[in-house]
Amino acid sequence: MSKLQKIKKAAGQRLSKWRSDQLPIRRGLIGYGANAIAMTATRLLIRLSAEGRDNIPAQVPYVIASNHETYVDGMWIGAYLPRGHFHHLSCIAGSDLEFQHGWLGRVILRVGRAIPIDRFGNPVRGLIIAKKKVDEGNILLVHPEGTRTSDGHLGELKDGAAYIAIKSKVPLVPVFIDGGYEVFSRHMKRPQPRDPQTGRKQRVVIRFGPPLRPQDFRNAHEMTAALQEWMESCASDRRIPRN
């Protein structure tokens, strides 16, 4: 059995241990504590800011669709949600986080109140559960690229986020993480809070776009196309220059 086959098998086994009524994974003391410590460190070590917060719906639930640059995109997004909304924030995450990414992966599942899906197999079960959890009042964060960027550029977006928003009849809020790749890309063993050339604190900007409303689109694919267009416009107009 190849290494990839072993990972796929383990991912399926981990996924089967979570029942629908146990999801999202409970944040608990560990999740809230880890989030507080990590956000305190973030604000001390880098320059984190947000734009377009007035685009965030005042009422829950809704779906958030963000590009994926770091392990901690969801934590940064959660820091700028309206008061009380972080409590309702959940996310779709690969079940392999629990065993392929060490203690950090397990903590991320808790901080994010994850709904695990099988990234190597059929994700339909996870999407059905996620849709149900949105109907129950949860905010759902989805990374439509499916995984963290390997080169800092935006990838092709999948329809999952739009599908859930349309089926649950809730707004989809587009979010663009700008500068995260320079701070904590998938190629780094640890964060790099200072620019290696200037020694200055790195800057990250979280950009919230106008919500996409289900009634304005005929299907999920059409909504995803609008989301891709907005993301690409942000990528071409970065606040943080990409080296």
Structural notes for this entry:
This protein has helices spanning about 5-15, 30-45, 75-80, 95-100, 100-110, 125-135, 160-170, 180-185, 220-235, and strands at about 45-50, 65, 90-95, 115, 140, 170-180, 205-210. α2 packs across α5, α6 runs parallel beside α7 and α7 (about 160-170) packs across α9. The protein starts with a helix and ends in a 7-residue tail after the last helix. The protein is globular and about 50 Å long. The protein has a seven-stranded mixed β-sheet, sandwiched between helices. The model has no long low-confidence stretch (mean pLDDT about 90). By secondary structure, it is an alpha/beta fold. About 40% of the residues are buried. It has nine helices and seven strands; from the N terminus they run ααββαβααβαβαβαβα. The chain has one domain (about 50-235): Glycerol-3-phosphate (1)-acyltransferase.
Name the strands of the widest sheet in spatial order: 1-7-6-2-5-3-4
Helix content: 25-40%
CATH architecture: 3-Layer(aba) Sandwich
**Pattern of helices and strands:** HHEEHEHHEHEHEHEH
Indicate how many domains the architecture comprises: 1
Mean pLDDT: 91
CATH overall fold name: Glycerol-3-phosphate (1)-acyltransferase
How far is the first residue's CA from the last residue's CA? Answer: 40 Å
State the major sheet.
Answer: 7 strands, mixed
Looking at how many chains there are and whether they match, the oligomeric state comes to single chain
**Tally of DSSP helical segments:** 9
The number of distinct β-strands equals 7
> What would you give as the CATH superfamily?
Glycerol-3-phosphate (1)-acyltransferase
The radius of gyration computed from the alpha-carbon positions, rounded to a whole number of angstroms, is 17 Å
CATH classification class:
Alpha Beta
Question: Outline, from the CA principal axes?
Answer: globular
